[in-house]
Amino acid sequence: MNLERIPNEEKLSLCRRYYLGGFAFLPFLWLVNVLWFFREAFLKPTYTEQPQIKSYVKKSAVGLTVWVAVLTTWITIFQHFRAQWGEVGDYLSFTIPLGTA
Amino acid sequence: MRKMGYLISINCVKLLITALLYTCVCSSSVEQKIYVELNQTVPCVRLLNATHQIGCQSSMSGDTGVLHVLETESDLDWILSSGPHPPYMVILETAFFNRSVMMRMKNSSRVSGVAVIISKTGLAHDFSPHTTCPNQNTGVYSERYGSDLANCNVTVWNPLGNGLSYEDFPFPVFALKDENQTQVIRKCYEDHNQRVNGSAPQYPLCAMQLFSHMHAATDTVTCMRRTDLQNRFGINPEVLCDPLSDFNVWTSSRALNISSKGHAVNESVVIAATRLDGRSFFWEQAPAAEGTVSGIITLLAAVHALYPVTQEAPPPRNIFFTFFQGEAFDYIGSSKMVYDMEKNDFVIDLNNVHSMLEIGQVGLRSGRSLWMHSDPVSRKNDDVNAEVLEMMTRMRSAAAGLNVSVAHPSFTQALPPSSLQRFLRAGLIPGLVLADHQTSFNNRYYESMYDDAENLQVTYPPDLSPDEQLVYETDAAKSLAEVATLVARSLYLQAGGENSSLSNITADPKIVAQLLYSFVIQKNNSWLRSLLPPEVTKKGVNSLLSSGPPQFYIGLGPRVHGPVHSVTRFVQYILANLTGTVTNLTENQCQDPSELSSENKDLFSYFWVSGPVSVNSSSEPLCVRASVRLSEAVSPAFELLEYGSRDYSTWTESRWKSIRARIFLVASRELEMLTLGVGVAVLLLSLLATYFISSKAELLFSSAHDTPTTAY
């Protein structure tokens, strides 16, 4: 969808929908929000709805960073320690690699 | 004109089809020009028990390494430290297949795999990859029972054991048994990898790739848990490992009714036992001549000698002959039979057992005496001690008229690894183990690939045809026949038989010679073929009767491998032949004799066998009735689902997808990088060229005369 051709109120409501949707454990919506509306929020000349769009983009970016940090930590811990956890590790895994601990 | 054109097009089509067929049939694909597949290799596979994994593992896409033949110590230094083309694939000469070399390679990161040349040249004086104290944790001796005798404190049974079979190697180890194939590998090595005047060889070099990726890991508990999880929740249910299992074979001098389980009323039984299996470092290779075959042949010949006398003059007690499978792996078969007896799930129970005689390794006697081993801890009980002394007296009196002498070790010593230990775990049973060794084994190649006919000193004079070899009575056969006579007579006395009938009990050296030939030289012979069912003797890939001696590794049993393991089948049918009677039932009646009133399925089994080959080389199949039975030999740990059990065997074998080996030439890393770089450069160049051409398309491809657009 080309943002050029949409009126500003629709841009604001789109940004808000993506921001609210990300709270349903959907961090990719926040990622899309940040990437898509970055130019609108920070690089375009000012218009009425821009401050709100800017705040939504900033909050999405914060949420995204938190998610990335949590997921990276968990994935690192899991990959490193799964073998040592034995039974718990097997119950947490969906597919277990063949032939290695 | 049209007809000419038609004919020409038909000819073109024919030419095209012929050309296609030619290329398809020739199939000289690029892959065959690069790789030489090695078909005659034997891998080492991964086995797991309750706490450990042993064996070898390769990467999922195989392990590749530059070939190097290890013939001298300097070769070992080259591989481990100074060679410039790591990782290496080591071709190990027979003399270097020992613990120190293998452990040094295990700890090095420069070895990606090992291929061992199996031959008799350069073979060390002794080689046993088994542990020094076999089955030390599942025998009867522990802290609570004979603690001063536990863990081979007094006598180390297998002092020559280097424990290689129980190590965990992170790289594949294959065995090269075929001399022609080894020659191919050596030629590749000599052509490309040989060092010239001490300097390193130049690329391209000969390399080998070994595939033996095992699916199971860590231990049996983990592997079984993962199999369960996969089957319940996974999208791709896959079994990772299978328990080692097969069947025990048993028979009795008086037929026992199998429909009645638990304690058998008025039955006092003397058990005569031996083991049916062996193992080695590699998968499914276990010639086990001295370790196992000597016991099997002795007991089979004793059964044959005893049977007519027990029918004419039956002794008061029943004699129960049994062959236990899986004894190399923590007593699978005997622990299962004892477990069944304890649960009243077997035709007899432990209260029926009067005493037990086990035949251990009896092949390397060399004219010396045999030894009767007993358990000193159970003999502290007066009744047991009295019975054991009686057993020894009976044995000595049975040996009196023979060329064999028996003796008892003069000092307090544990029982050697034997099935009797599992029976002693369940109760005080007077028993003896008969063996040719007083302290440590005489067998220098215990549980290895070299425990073959030569180790058992079975040699035939030259220029004998296979059929003549089959019946030729070697010295080994005569020696085993004497032992069998001793065993048969002792069993008859032990069962309460009369002294007067003893002289009729003699083992037939001809039967022993045929058994020896079938079990250590060649199983595909006319005698064994006549004893087996007709469909087995038909040729096929999975035929039981491939060439060479049988291998005694227990394997995975009928759930995975199809019919019963070949050795179990042989012993079952040989016993049926030696103790059975021929009936005149037809094939259908033989499969199911329940309708006939004269036949009793509860007391006997019925076997449809090929029959002897008559003069005009045809054989008439016939039905044999015998009281020979199979009983399951699966460790009780798998029935109780206690995969981490310390009391029972928990051995499992991992599954795998493909096991193969191939050799090919490899280029240097620099050449590979250069090829890749040139390829990437050509790609970028072509992208650039396409971009330029497309942007200047009107200029390059405009025609000389513009097509006139006539406007009217």
Automatic annotation (TrEMBL), chain A:
InterPro entries: Gamma_Secretase_Asp_P_PEN2
Membrane topology reported for the UniProt record: Multi-pass membrane protein
Subcellular location: Golgi apparatus, Golgi stack membrane
Superkingdom as given in the UniProt entry: Eukaryota
Transmembrane segment boundaries: 18-39, 60-81
Keywords: Membrane, Notch signaling pathway, Transmembrane, Transmembrane helix
GO cellular-component term (any): Golgi cisterna membrane
UniProt KW Ligase keyword: no
Swiss-Prot/TrEMBL GO biological process terms: Notch receptor processing; Notch signaling pathway
Family: Belongs to the PEN-2 family.
Protein name, entry field: Gamma-secretase subunit PEN-2
The organism of origin for this protein: Carassius auratus
From TrEMBL, chain B:
Compartment list: Membrane
Annotated membrane topology: Single-pass type I membrane protein
Pfam families reported in the protein's UniProt record: Ncstrn_small, Nicastrin
Entry keywords, A to Z: Glycoprotein, Membrane, Notch signaling pathway, Signal, Transmembrane, Transmembrane helix
Keyword Glycoprotein attached: yes
One GO location term (cellular component): plasma membrane
SUPFAM superfamilies noted in UniProt: Zn-dependent exopeptidases
Location, primary (coarse class): membrane
Limits of the Nicastrin small lobe domain: 43-216
Span of the signal peptide: 1-27
Parts forming coiled coils: none
Keyword Ribosomal protein belongs to the record: no
TM segment ranges: 673-693
GO BP annotations, alphabetical order: Notch receptor processing; Notch signaling pathway; protein processing
UniProt family annotation: Belongs to the nicastrin family.
PANTHER family in alphabetical order: NICASTRIN
Protein name: Nicastrin
Species in which this protein is naturally found: Carassius auratus
